[in-house]
Amino acid sequence: MPTVQLIRVSVNDAFTADPSLFDKLREGATKAGIVNQSFGFGVEEPTQLYWILHFDQGFEPTESVWPTNEYGDFTEGLMGISTEVAKTLLPFESFSVETIKAPLTDITIFTLKDGAKIEEFKSVIDPFRAGFASEVPTSWAVNSFNDREVFLFVGWDSVETHAEFNGTPEFLKYKTDMSEFMAAPPKMRHVKLADHLTSPIRNHSSF
């Protein structure tokens, strides 16, 4: 069961002035054994930095050790580039890396109402995902910190492609079926992600 940590950072002026502060955090995570990472900014909210860490090297988040002597305190480092930080642990049954390699990643957060069961949610979302075209990858998981939250990752070619899909009868039926489980409307974020191993941090205005 692959575990992914999603960290959302509302970047501050210190980050804007010196993006290498985030480079240092990524390097520290690599030293801690988290080799595969992705990061990028929200399309609709360009001050929101999304950092995805993949625990796929044979150890779990609770077993990772941050190299404090070399890279300082992790929490202090995060707070130094942010006005707000939100962390989520997502244990996926299976995770398609194509969702984050796509030109655009849609991250949707569903908040389930009290009494709604994950099994019931699964009975709606899995057939819906199966109906996607083969070139549209998807993955979903329940937030380990809050079992009322479900995160769905979808890889798209563009915002326009996603918008076109949202006008189809298939999506409208899914939206209706899903609404009975929801405590609130889903929160959707489009993010352009880059791979840590091949992409340096860029000024967020260039994303």
| CATH class (first level) name of the largest domain | Alpha Beta
Query: Strand fraction band?
Result: 25-35%
Give the overall pLDDT as a whole number: 91
Q: How many H/I helices? A: 8
CATH-level-2 architecture of the largest domain: 2-Layer Sandwich
Enter the CATH topology name of the largest domain: Alpha-Beta Plaits
Largest sheet: 8 strands, antiparallel
Number of domains: 2
Q: List low-confidence stretches.
A: 201-207
What does the radius of gyration come to? 17 Å
What is the helix fraction of residues, given as a range?
Answer: 25-40%
Write down how many β-strands occur, each being a DSSP E stretch of 2 or more residues. 8
Order of helices and strands: EHHEEHHEHEHEEHHE
Sheet with most strands: strand arrangement: 4-1-3-2-8-5-7-6
Described by the principal axes of the CA atoms, the overall outline is globular
Question: What does the model show?
Answer:
It is a single chain. With 207 residues, the protein is of the alpha+beta class. The protein has 8 helices and 8 strands. It has 2 domains: 3-93, Alpha-Beta Plaits, CATH 3.30.70; 98-191, Alpha-Beta Plaits. The chain has helices spanning 13-17, 20-31, 68-71, 74-79, 98-101, 118-130, 159-165, 169-179; strands at residues 3-11, 37-42, 48-55, 82-91, 104-111, 138-142, 149-156, 187-195. An 8-stranded antiparallel sheet has the order 4-1-3-2-8-5-7-6. The longest helix is centred in the middle third of the chain and has 13 residues, at 118-130. The relative contact order is 0.22.
